[in-house]
Amino acid sequence: MLYLSQILGRPIFDARNDKIAAIKDVIVRYGEEDYPPVIGLVARYNRRLFFIPKRDFSDLGESGAVMSSTVLDLNPFVRRSGEVLLGKDVLDNQLIDVDGKRVVRVNDVQLIEAGGFWRVTGADVSLQGFVRRLMPKGFYGSDRPVEVIDWADVGYLATDSASATVQLKSSKDKLSRLHPVEIAQLAETLSPIHRTEIVESLDDEIAADTLEEMSTENQARILEEMNEERAADILEEMSPDDAVDVLGEMDEEKAQELFNLMEGEEKADVAELLPYEHDTAGGLMTTEFIVFPKDLTVSQAIARLREMAETPNMIYYLYVVEKENSWKICGLITLRSLILADPTYSLAEVMRESFQSAHPSDSAEAVAQTISEYNLLALPVIDDEGDIAGIVTVDDAMEILLPKNLQRSLPRLFR
Prior knowledge:
415 residues, alpha+beta, SH3 type barrels, MgtE N-terminal fold, CBS-domain, 3 domains, 7-stranded mixed beta sheet, 4-stranded antiparallel beta sheet, elongated
């Protein structure tokens, strides 16, 4: 086992044991493997940097590297796709420790030889890793405690090198093990460019959930930096009200461009909400809700719920309308009441006819106060014709009532 700091700057000897160069860096290849293999060294001779492939050196250790031949290819070193330089790209950079759910700084890199291959196996994030690099060999001692993160738990490496795209592909599954809240919190501790890279690496649905946990300003900046088609795909996965909020935060021309790229029902849902002012019930509401006609029986309603291809993540209230394909609301029923009701009863017989509601033009603050006072999880928004236009959920309402420092801890019940 070696640490990178123990070999950087060490001499390179040829087969006759003559010193011919020094180790400038160690190159590994990113791919599907949890522990990237060492594929060669960047060697320095005078001011020239050149590449020595793994097959050309027979030994690597604290004393340096020993070549298996006397022939050198002195063509200038050029990084190839998928290659990561451990010294340049990894040391002193930040990474996401998936297991520890934290962002840490890499003070040294652990390498282990197994089966004839050297591989990156860990990142030393302890103070001792930093001290090891500064002090002369042997000075720091080998019995001091270190903290090494298993490289299999490295969810993202915040490097500015050309290797970023490659390592993001290998990070995707690891980051997906985290909850979107955790991904968002970790991403927001990194620089804007790395924040964008993390969201880009995720599947559309997880990326959307992650963005919804960030500030609207950060959502807008990330989507503006992304490929337009991909940004539109993620907007389609977001809750319509959140998508409207983030489009409103963007430059008008950019927002229109992304909106035009959206498709299907998602685009129609966003279009419904765009005309409303952001500080009104219309601007606060979402169109993610479920309506059933009042003549449907309880058992039929439950069957329809089961057959739905997509439903809101959190269903608490079901809204009852006059007839099929109508939006004219006449009552509501909680999911609990539906499950406990006699299966043969119609929804008209079990629904609640008296309920709190809001008008699209009502102030957002008034809506939030109503939700708070009546301990509601959602409030229907009804237009002048008596049609249900949307619902305001408790998490959006509480964002208005709570101080900003408490908003991040609010559960997103309806996401």
